[in-house]
Write a structure and sequence with these properties.
2 copies of one chain form a homodimer. Chain A is of the alpha+beta class. Chain A contains 21 helices and 19 strands. Chains A, B: InterPro entries: aa-tRNA-synth_II, aa-tRNA-synth_II/BPL/LPL, Anticodon-bd, Anticodon-bd_dom_sf, His-tRNA-ligase, HisRS-like_core, HisRS/HisZ, HisRS_anticodon.
Chain lengths: ~550, ~550
């Protein structure tokens, strides 16, 4: 008789694009999110944890022509034929929650949310299909004070988790100004406007010449493929390029102006000189900062230049006014250009922003995979979006918010040595005599009651070498050893594993004698001595 | 021309059986989990956050005869035809993680995990399709010290989150003893054994008579439906009933024994009397506790009785020895019957346990939905399961662990007033003059820097009543008021909203005069005065 076919063993692996997080990867992230939550809480934001599963209808992720949800989400059909999906961000669920509970929520509603989101996208190196987001949003107010508050909170948050002032900058712009520029230059087709937006968002990647090509006829990219352009004429293109490079142009003008003065210097000469020195001159690199006057002057010049670009566009004028208001509110609270700046080069690719947009950038340098220095770059971004709730209720509800890239920020903190430095391993009580397990357990009990992380070795105790290897793998700072001999004399051996490793590596005979890595103490002094060693290791 | 049909608006609601958590529901749970994580960490357990999505193959959730995953999980087919699913617990993913990473993990591997799990089950009142679990497991050791450790950790955990000693008890039993009883009585069919297990797990619900019916021929349940019985004969049934009621029978015997003594009392008479008094007598209800001797005596009697029931069954003898070992280890560490007890009535329904099983029960009374007092009941359970990793690797890997019912434990803490009592609302700075927004923002900035939760009212400021309603909805303890008049004099009004509410309700004129709920102070004293009021409210 043939043997019945066995079911093959399942493969022990995560699905493609998913991963597990171990030990400090989990606890360091939790600690960072805890610090962020504290700041958000202090700003009056309330926690919200929405369901991870939403109806596809509520997420709005149906492709127009097909009856299956869009590929970007993980979706399935419920037993009652409804399509459900995992949330792909925390903003779409917020819109649903607000629409559903608006009568029970305060207006405006400030909320923060932290948790995983899922994207059904092609995974790649460092690109996962489940990752954390951490958002704060204010729903139900059109006031620029809400946007200013989010920017200030973002700056406070970065400092709270350990990014020092000077190592980051929050850049603020306004989408309406760009719309005004486009209006003034006659680009009125919304799809063309969106294409312009996506194009200038690539400025960092393809540079000025690349953006010009892409805004115009198109461009042969590095792979040899031809990318169609947006189709703007040179005349239409110029104000757009000027908008993105507004600050540069303003500084060029300041430079010329300074050159033009001979003996006859105007009252604002000192401030103009300071603007130039901070932004362009060698003094800036040596740490010269704006003062209130020089930054006010620069901002006024930039906003004035934007006013030139938007001409008589109403929406453009609104945008400039909004930028000015945010700037004023922030300066009044002491958030100067060392933390938050107005910067027309920030556009943010997402189509749904309708007014202010902001981005937090880390300005310190790291080495890229090829060892070249580069700026760490963006770790958070957001802006105002006034139409997300409307899908549900028919009424526009103004909202603004920010999303922190949790993994990127955590990577930045590691880069800066702000996390990952602690000794986390437990004290390991080794087992010399299986029959003494209750005594070993009593030892760890004593250590834990003294708030010292400790565990008994629970593997096969026969081979003592394995126990020491285990302690090593656990990153243990200290091992406890007690066999029949020690129990008879009511003593324990305490081994300093950190010192032991150092001695094994490099100690001289003198060092070895002076501070042996293993000491014997009475059982009653176990806790005291372990604590002393742990403190010495810090 | 007909109007183009509009897409209907999406419904703003969670899918059936899912819910959102707001504010303190989120933060109180996070705080509780944080305290639990601290205890687990101190015991040497490492955090693990596995992917929320697993292959259905790894979860083992395929029904034998169909090519679709079992209804219990939310599953969908990936673009490469693989079935993926949301995890339904944290144990199956642990088995997969251990099998996948076993060469990089310490042996034994102690890990804890906290997070949502998803069940594709019929939702009901208080029964959701997404909920939190919080597990700790030790994988890779057969030592009873691992089980004892988990029980001790569970007791420590309950106390750490705020359940006082005396308000809980961890009960320990061993599945092998039951198997031994069944072996001794000739029930050897595994399916029948499993049916016995499920039946005696219903003891609390259907009582002794009900269990007898279900173990025998069957039973007419309350709804009138006939439930088939397991089909044991009366002779087979008796040892099973004795097993479940072992403690009761032992105490009956103690009672008889005490009655039988006249003048001729044995040495252990005092301990026997204490056993009876604590467990049965009025002294127990008055708080008399076991001492080491009386509890040792009771345990010895219970284990002795179990030995009678299992006869010569090898597995049964193993079970009794394991129970004795756990009991000895725990007593040596000081975990007496006020925290952890041996109790043969605990069986836990899950089929996969292979040895020790445990359950944490809260013993204080609450009122049920009909106002009748009842014990709060189980909040955590677990046991040893030795076969979960084998599915992947072919090798049996011993493991033991516990799972805390996060929502139930949080409900218990609320019941005990351990969470939910704090004032969490922010100080609200009202807006009397829109043009002064920067000044209002500066006020909240000062408050926040002093670690006081504060926010500016960002709704439409026209109607001051709406601002006070908003403050009320936010649970604000204090409101700040400053209009032109106050700004001109550099003063602010500070309104104590808690006191204000109390006065509005019940104050006498004297109280009102003595401690008015609104005071005016110089702007420079804002923070100081607010802090004073907040401290007064505690």
């Amino acid at each position: 008789m043939a043997k019945p076919r066995k079911t093959p063993r399942p493969r022990a692996e995560t699905p493609k694009g998913f991963r597990d997080y171990f030990g400090s990867d989990v606890t360091e992230r939790a600690a960072m999110l805890g610090k962020i939550a504290e700041v958000y809480h202090r700003y009056g934001f309330d926690a919200l944890e929405s369901s991870a599963v939403e109806t596809v209808e509520a997420l709005g992720k149906f492709l127009p022509d097909v009856d299956r949800p869009n590929d970007g989400v993980f979706a399935w059909q419920d037993e009652d034929e409804k399509w459900l999906a995992l949330r792909y961000d925390l903003t779409a669920p917020l819109a649903r929650v607000y629409a559903q509970h608006r009568n029970d929520l305060p207006t405006p509603y400030r909320r923060y949310a932290m948790g995983p989101v899922w994207r059904n996208e092609k995974p790649g190196p460092g690109r996962f299909r489940q990752f954390y987001q951490c958002d704060a949003d204010t729903v139900g107010t059109a006031s620029m004070a809400a946007d200013a508050e989010i920017c200030a909170m973002l700056a406070d948050t970065l400092e709270a988790v350990g990014i020092e002032r000077g190592d980051y900058v929050v850049r603020v712009n306004n989408r309406k100004v760009l719309n005004g520029v486009l209006e003034a230059t006659g680009v009125s087709d919304p799809e063309q406007q969106a294409a312009v937006l996506r194009t200038i968002d690539k400025f960092d990647k393809v540079g000025e010449a690349g953006v010009r090509e892409l805004l115009g006829k198109g461009r042969l990219d590095a792979s040899g493929a031809y990318i169609d352009g947006v189709g703007l004429s040179d005349i239409q293109m110029q104000p757009v390029m000027d908008f993105v490079q507004a600050k540069k142009i303003v500084l060029d003008r300041v430079e010329k102006e300074l050159d033009s003065f001979a003996d006859n210097k105007p009252i604002e000469y000192q401030q103009l000189l300071r603007v130039w020195s901070v932004e362009r001159g060698p003094d800036g690199k040596r740490g010269l900062q704006h003062n209130a006057e020089s930054y006010a002057l620069l901002t006024a010049r930039v906003l004035g230049f934007l006013n030139e670009l938007i001409g008589s566009s109403t929406v453009g004028q609104e945008g400039v006014l909004e930028l000015r208001e945010i700037s004023t509110l922030l300066l009044a609270q002491g958030y100067g250009p060392d933390r938050i700046v107005i910067d027309p080069s920030v556009v943010r690719g997402l189509g749904y922003y309708t007014g202010p947009v902001f981005e937090a950038e880390l300005t310190f340098e790291i080495l890229d995979e090829k060892g070249r220095p580069r700026q760490f770059g963006s770790v958070a971004g957001g802006g105002r979006y006034d139409d997300l709730v409307k899908r549900f209720t028919g009424q526009a509800v103004p909202a603004t918010g920010v999303s922190i890239g949790v993994d990127r920020l955590l990577a930045a903190l590691r880069e800066k040595g702000r996390v990952g430095g602690e000794v986390e391993g437990p004290v390991v009580v080794t087992v010399m005599d299986r029959g003494r397990m209750a005594d070993y357990q009593a030892m760890v009990g004593d250590l834990r009651r003294a708030d010292i992380r400790a565990e008994v070795y629970l593997g096969n105790p026969k081979n003592f070498g394995n126990q020491m290897k285990y302690a090593d793998r656990r990153g243990s700072p200290v091992a406890i050893i007690a066999g029949e001999d020690e129990f008879a004399r009511d003593m324990v051996q305490i081994k300093d594993l950190i010192l032991g490793a150092r001695i094994a590596e490099s100690a001289t005979l003198e060092e070895w004698k002076e501070r042996p890595s293993q000491v014997e103490v009475p059982r009653a002094q176990l806790v005291e001595k372990v604590r002393e060693i742990l403190e010495g290791q810090r």
